[in-house]
Design a protein that fits this description.
This is NTP pyrophosphohydrolase. InterPro entries: YacP-like. This protein has a single domain, classed as Rossmann fold. 36% of the residues lie in helices and 22% in strands. It has a six-stranded mixed beta sheet with strand order 3-4-2-1-5-6, sandwiched between helices. A hairpin with a 2-residue loop joins strand 3 and strand 4. The termini are far apart.
Length: 137
C-alpha cells in the first residue's frame, strides 16, 4: 500500500537477524522483537523519508502473535504464511508503482535477483545496521 513517503524499505528480518551471531537462534521471536525495536528509531537516520516494511517468518512470527500483519510504531509488519522470500517478492510486486524507490535489505543472493528483476534496489544487513547504530547513538 503506497503512501505519501518517498521510499519503501523492505526488511528480510530472518536474514538481517541471522547476520549477527548474537545468539538469535536461541530465541527467534525475541530476536525479531529486538529488531523491531531497533527499527522504530530508524526513520530519522535515513537518506530520505521511507515507509519500512518488515517481513518475518517461522518461529519469529511469535514476535507479533495475535496480530500478524500490522502497523507497529510506524513499521508495517508482514507475517509470511509460507516462505519469507516469497512474501518479500509479493510486497515488492504489490508496491511497485514506479513512483518511489523500493529498497530490499537482504544478503540472500536468490532473493536479491528476484526483487531486482522487479526494479527494487538491494542492500545488505550492514547498510541497515549502520543506520540502526547511528539511531541509537
Amino acid at each position: 500500500m503506497a503512501d505519501n513517503r518517498t521510499g519503501l524499505i523492505v526488511v528480510d528480518a530472518a536474514n538481517v537477524v541471522g547476520s549477527r551471531p548474537d545468539g538469535w537462534w536461541r530465541d527467534r521471536a525475541g530476536a525479531a522483537r529486538r529488531l523491531l525495536v531497533q527499527l522504530d528509531a530508524l526513520e530519522q537516520h535515513l537518506d530520505q523519508p521511507a515507509e519500512v516494511v518488515v517481513v518475518i517468518e517461522g518461529a519469529a512470527k511469535a514476535a507479533v502473535a495475535g496480530d500478524p500483519n500490522r502497523e507497529l510504531n510506524g513499521l508495517r509488519v508482514v507475517s509470511a504464511h509460507g516462505s519469507g522470500d516469497d512474501a518479500i517478492v509479493d510486497v515488492v510486486a504489490a508496491e511497485k508503482d514506479g513512483e518511489r524507490q523500493i529498497t530490499v535489505v537482504t544478503a540472500d543472493r536468490g532473493l536479491r535477483a528476484r526483487v531486482e528483476a522487479l526494479g527494487a534496489v538491494t542492500v545488505g544487513p550492514r547498510w541497515l545496521f549502520a543506520r540502526i547504530d547511528a539511531a541509537s547513538s
